[in-house]
Amino acid sequence: MKKIPILALVMLVLVLSCAHASEFLIGGNVRINEPLNENLFVAGGTVKIFTPINGSLFAAGGEVFVNSTVENAVITGGQIKLGPGALIKKDATLIGSIVENHGTIVGNLSLNADHFTNNGSIGVINIIEKVEKTPQQTTYEDLMSYGLRTLGTLLLGVVLVIAFPKSLAKLEKEIKTETIKKTAIGFGVLLLSISVVIMIIITIVGIPFGVLLAAGIVLLFFLSPLIVALVLGDKIVKYFNIKTNKILVFTIGFLVIRVLLKIPRVGIVLSILMGSLGFGAIFSTVKNWKNKKH
Fold this sequence. Notes:
The protein is an alpha/beta fold. It is built from seven helices and eight strands. The chain folds into two domains: 33-127, no CATH class; 135-293, no CATH class. It is 53% helix and 29% strand. Strands 1, 2, 3, 4, 5, 6, 7 and 8 form an eight-stranded parallel β-sheet that branches. The relative contact order is 0.11.
């Protein structure tokens, strides 16, 4: 068990060593008005880019608008729009509900969208086709899928609460103290970890370690909302002066979070914030463990 914190520290060192390679931004409304000579990782409710990026763009948001020159682009969001001034010099991957292209994509476009409008120029379009379903089928299947995912995640959280009460208590304590600071630290660690994974996988030789690291990031990001649910549930029961057990506390917080995640735009920002807070809490826990050891 003692090897886990050490491994986490090693991973963190690898992440920090690549901090110079990219720019990382997050916010409710993010607007890029200055040229960048590096890769850009950006996430927000609304993301707008108006100046050249001499590198690759990785963007996620409720609404993403690009009207500048970039090398490559990987964008996911509710609504994605490439303006008349957009020039993707190489390839682009666009995943969203509504996607509009009024600019130029020189290379390949990998597209996954419910609605796509192309008034610009594209080298080659690779469309991931979706099976057409009736509104009734879509609604029923979506509800069933969401319900099963919610139930499965809830049961997993309950198991963790029962099996690891002391560990979760430590993480819960970390989240309650210096929350904003830990969220900022966690977001930096999260984005830098993603950058490290990409760079490791590019080397080909490091693919196995890159895949392992990516799996760890996904797992931690998945578990982070469960930790936040404990804190939120605790605040709710204390506010209403409800006497209950830890499982019900977690369940209340978890269900509230699941509802909030379904709110358009708010959901994606909340997911990023919870993931960042969870990463920050884990980082602080590992750091404290290391300090106590010495």
